[in-house]
Amino acid sequence: MAEESLQLPPEHNLDYHIVSLFERLENLRKEQNQGAVVVVGGRVSRPSMQAEIRTLEFWRSIISECIASFFYVFIVCGAAAGAGVGASVSSVLLATALASGFAVATLTQCFSHISGAHINPAVTLALSVVRMISPLRAAMYITAQCGGGIAGAALLYG
Predict the structure, then answer these.
(1) Which residues contact 148 (CB under 8 A, 6 or more apart)?
(2) Which GO terms describe its cellular component (predicted)?
């Protein structure tokens, strides 16, 4: 048999195929995220609560808020408890403040693309009041954040 080589037209080079692959993947991702918020003419259109609760993205964001709150409470309370042994008040405050700041920065980098990294129920409540998240999502976030915080404290002190 003769060797046959596949000849692509010049406009169909490797770059073209990579770009078209990414476009197709992006379209698939958009189709799967039917629960996304859509703004049309300044009016926000959200999916129903029944549709929102069935999405994998919803449950991933709930779990990520729980994990973020767990780590935040564990790190900050651990820094305060560890620095309190034979240390001055100012060193305990400094250690706790640094731990809090670095923990929030790190957790925000890790979880912001999944759930927004609210970490604090007050932030979640504020975003719910200004209608940036749905009431269902806010209630679930607050429940997950409180549960994560309790679990972090229980692991540290329990």
Answers:
(1) 65, 66, 67, 68, 69, 70, 73
(2) plasma membrane
